[in-house]
Specification:
Elements lengths: L1 H32 L23 H185 L3 H4 L3 H38 L12 E7 L5 E9 L1 H13 L8 H7 L2 E5 L3
Helix pairs in contact: 1-2, 2-4, 4-5, 4-6
Pfam family, one: TolA
GO molecular function, one term: toxin transmembrane transporter activity
Organism: Morganella psychrotolerans
Length: about 350
C-alpha cells in the first residue's frame, strides 16, 4: 500500500513537471513572436550587422496544437495510468485482503499449532512426570525387591549352613549309630552264639529229660502191665477155686474191668502229663533257638497261644498277654521256629490250643 502511494505521488510530480515545462515553452514561443531582430548594413566605417529572426505563425499554431495534443495524450495517458493504478490498487487491495486472510489463516493455524504444541508440551510434561513417578516407584520397588532378595539370600545361606550343620550332625549320628549297630551286632552275634550253645545244652538236657521221662513211662507201663497180668491171674485162680462161680456172678467181671480201667486211666494220665511237660519244654527250646535279643528282655514274660497240626506245623500263634516288645519278638521267633511233632495224639490234643508262657533265657 505504501509503495503504491509512493508511485502515485511520483507520477503526479512527473505530470505537474511536464505541464509546467510545456507552459514555459508556449510562453517562450509567444514571446519570441513579438521580438523582431533586424540587421542593418552600413557603408561606412564602424557599421554594425543586425540579425533578425522571423517567426512563422503557422508553425507556432502547429507547435501549439502539438503541445495540446501532447497534453491531451498526457492527460489520456495520465487517466489510463490512474485507471490502471486504481485497477492495480484494487487488485493490490484484493491481494492484500487475500494476503490478510491468508495471514489470518496462518496466524490461526500458528495459534492452533502453538496450542497443540502447548498441549503436547503439557502432555509430554505430564507423561514425563508420570514416567518420573513410575521410575521413582520402580526404584523403590527395586529397592524393596533387592532388600527382599538380600534377606532371602541371607535366609538361604543360613538355611544352607543349618542344613550343612544338620547333615554333619546326622552324619556323625549315623556314624555313631553305625558304630553302635556294629557293636550291637557283635554283641548280638556273641549272644546268639552263647544262646545257641545254651539252647543246644538245654535241648540236650530236654532230650535227656524227655528220654528219661519216656523210660520212666515205659517202666511204669511195664509195671502196670505186670500188675494187670497178676490181677488177671489172681482172678483166674479165684474163678478156678470157686468152680467158675465167680466168673458167672453178676457184676464181678465188669467190676474188675472197672477197677482195672480206673487204675489204667490214672496211670495213663500220669504218663500223659510227663509227655506233655516234656513236649512243652521242647517247644520253648525251639522258639528260644530263633530268639536273638534275650538280654534286652530279661525278666519279662509273654503269653503265646499256639495252634499246631499233629505233625508240629504251626497253624497260628498269637500274643494274649505280657510285654509288648517281647511279644513282638517272640511272635517273630515262633513263626521261624522248627516246632517238633507231638509224641502222641493225646499230647497233640492237649497242646494244639495251649497257652505257653515264654521267658527269654
Amino acid at each position: 500500500m505504501r509503495k503504491l502511494k509512493e508511485r502515485k505521488d511520483k507520477l503526479n510530480r512527473s505530470v505537474i513537471t511536464s505541464v509546467v515545462l510545456h507552459l514555459l515553452l508556449v510562453a517562450l514561443v509567444i514571446w519570441g513572436s513579438f521580438v523582431t531582430k533586424s540587421g542593418l548594413t552600413g557603408g561606412g566605417e564602424g557599421g554594425q550587422v543586425i540579425d533578425a529572426i522571423m517567426v512563422d505563425p503557422n508553425a507556432m499554431v502547429e507547435n501549439f496544437n502539438q503541445q495540446q495534443q501532447q497534453q491531451a495524450n498526457a492527460k489520456q495517458a495520465q487517466a489510463q495510468r490512474e485507471k490502471k493504478e486504481k485497477q492495480q490498487e484494487e487488485e493490490l487491495r484484493q491481494k492484500e485482503a487475500r494476503e490478510q486472510e491468508r495471514l489470518k489463516a496462518i496466524e490461526e493455524e500458528r495459534l492452533k499449532t502453538e496450542q497443540k504444541v502447548d498441549d503436547q508440551k503439557k502432555e509430554a510434561e505430564e507423561q514425563q512426570k508420570q514416567a518420573q513417578d513410575a521410575l521413582k516407584k520402580a526404584k523403590e520397588e527395586q529397592k524393596i525387591a533387592e532388600a527382599a532378595a538380600a534377606k532371602a539370600q541371607a535366609e538361604k545361606e543360613n538355611l544352607i549352613k543349618e542344613q550343612a550343620l544338620a547333615k554333619k550332625k546326622s552324619d556323625e549320628k549315623a556314624a555313631a549309630q553305625q558304630a553302635a549297630e556294629e557293636e550291637k551286632a557283635k554283641a548280638e552275634k556273641a549272644a546268639q552264639e552263647k544262646a545257641a550253645k545254651a539252647e543246644a545244652t538245654k535241648a540236650e538236657a530236654a532230650k535227656a529229660e524227655a528220654a528219661k521221662a519216656e523210660k520212666a513211662a515205659k517202666e511204669k507201663a511195664a509195671k502196670e502191665k505186670a500188675a494187670k497180668a497178676a490181677a488177671k491171674k489172681q482172678a483166674n485162680e479165684v474163678d478156678d477155686l470157686l468152680g467158675g462161680l465167680a466168673s458167672n456172678a453178676p457184676g464181678t467181671e465188669s467190676g474188675g474191668a472197672s477197677a482195672a480201667g480206673q487204675g489204667g486211666g490214672k496211670k495213663s494220665g500220669t504218663n500223659s502229663d510227663g509227655d506233655m511237660n516234656g513236649y512243652i519244654a521242647q517247644v520253648r527250646l525251639a522258639i528260644q533257638a530263633k530268639f536273638y535279643n534275650a538280654d534286652m528282655y530279661r525278666g519279662k514274660t509273654c503269653t503265646l497261644e499256639i495252634n499246631i497240626t499233629d505233625k508240629g506245623t504251626l497253624i497260628s500263634v498269637n500274643a494274649v498277654g505280657g510285654d509288648d516288645g517281647l511279644c513282638q519278638a517272640a511272635l517273630a521267633a515262633a513263626k521261624q521256629a522248627r516246632i517238633p511233632a507231638p509224641p502222641s495224639k493225646s499230647v497233640w490234643q492237649q497242646f494244639k490250643n495251649t497257652k505257653l508262657d515264654f521267658k527269654p533265657e
